[in-house]
Specification:
The protein has about 350 residues and is α+β, with helices and mostly antiparallel strands. The chain has two domains: about 20-100, no CATH class; about 105-335, Sandwich (Jelly Rolls). About 25% of the residues lie in helices and about 40% in strands. It is built from seven helices and 18 strands. The strands form two sheets. The protein has a 16-stranded mixed sheet that branches. A two-stranded antiparallel ribbon has the order 2-3. Strand 15 (about 280-285) and strand 16 form a beta hairpin. It is elongated, with a radius of gyration of 26 Å.
């Protein structure tokens, strides 16, 4: 299907679900599931199930007298009409929807409720490792210098990663010559979980927003390994909105999957819940539960979670460009649902 028709169908179907509406829907489902679990163990339901077996058995085979049989059926009928039993079976009718909750096991989360970044969970420099030495570096296509935490703050219950217009000296990485000194007119920030959390297969999601839409500035949530590849952009918002996975050469074939949308897909200062789900076979990118892209899986090793904001051009900004992360969560498949190793 061509990109035009795919986007046409996307907009005709209603596009991305409103974030507040999506959050309310998730919260309602979680409340229903919690209620379902609590009702499942109530004395009323346990007794109802016990009586259901008895009334399903012919009286002569049950060993009950006629009086006992009538009393059993009467109690069963009363329980069947009770609020607890009625509510349980009403919730059970929609139990297929609970699969989105029951198949996941929470493996990592941060709601950024403190006054500073939790250094036990996050490091504030790129996690590439060269002979076991970690360097604060920028790649050759970036026009900024990373500050080791200088452009990262936690305030108002959110992580904020900033791009500032200011001179800085640093280190750049070029494929042909390696690490070299650089001078740039912008500073940028990055955080990742390389030292605290990695996972093979599952789901990662975060509620994010950004405040400027300037050409040359990007905001990203991504997955990495400490090597150049594989690299997966859960979301990269710049001149375009990109969902992508790069894994290099495997079996003589380059694994490279990229989906781009116009930047109008996401509005500045609006919050969105971005997510990636992956198993052995497939990767699926979502925003507010709406599928934006799917591709064959390109990750066969554990990855960490990273957020960054940076510069690839020369944008005119007088105040910082900010990527705001309200919360982030990572899930693994529960053992019964595991689709990976």
């Amino acid at each position: 299907m061509s990109g035009f028709f795919k986007r046409l169908l996307f907009h005709l179907s209603g596009g991305i679900t409103n974030t507040s509406k999506y959050e309310r829907r998730r919260a309602t489902l979680e409340k229903k599931y919690a209620k379902y679990l609590s009702l499942k163990q109530t004395p009323s339901l346990l007794r109802y199930r016990e009586l259901a077996l008895q009334v399903a058995t012919p009286r002569r085979q049950s060993g009950l007298s006629k009086k006992e049989w009538r009393a059993t059926k009467q109690e069963f009928a009363q329980l069947q009409k009770s609020a607890e039993v009625s509510n349980f079976f009403s919730l059970q009718k929609s139990s297929d929807n609970f699969h989105e909750i029951t198949r996941w096991e929470l493996a990592f989360e941060d709601s950024f409720d403190g006054k500073a970044l939790d250094k036990g969970r996050w490091v504030t420099h790129p996690a590439i490792i060269d002979n076991a030495v970690e360097l604060l570096y920028s790649s050759s296509d970036e026009n900024h210098v990373y500050t080791d935490g200088g452009n990262v703050v936690v305030e108002d219950h959110a992580l904020k990663i900033m791009v500032k217009r200011e001179h800085a000296d640093g280190v750049g990485f070029h494929e042909q010559v390696g690490f070299v000194p650089i001078a740039r007119e912008y500073t940028a920030g990055i955080v990742n979980t390389a030292h605290s959390h990695t996972q093979l297969y599952g789901k990662v999601e975060a509620k994010i927003r950004f405040n400027k839409r300037k050409r040359g500035i990007y905001y990203a949530m991504w997955l990495g390994t400490g090597k150049a590849l594989p690299h997966v952009n859960v979301l990269r918002a710049g001149s375009e909105i990109e969902f992508s996975a790069f894994a290099g050469q495997k079996a003589g074939k380059e694994l490279r999957y990229v989906e781009t949308w116009k930047r109008s897909l996401l509005r500045k200062n609006a919050a969105y819940i971005v997510a990636l789900e992956w198993d052995r076979e497939v990767m699926t990118w979502k925003i507010n539960g709406t599928v934006l892209f799917s591709a064959p899986n390109a990750i066969d090793e554990p990855v960490y979670i990273a957020f960054s904001a940076g510069v690839t051009g020369a944008p005119r900004i007088s105040t910082p460009a900010v990527l705001e992360v309200c919360w982030v969560k990572a899930y693994k498949y529960k053992e019964a649902e595991k689709r990976g190793k």
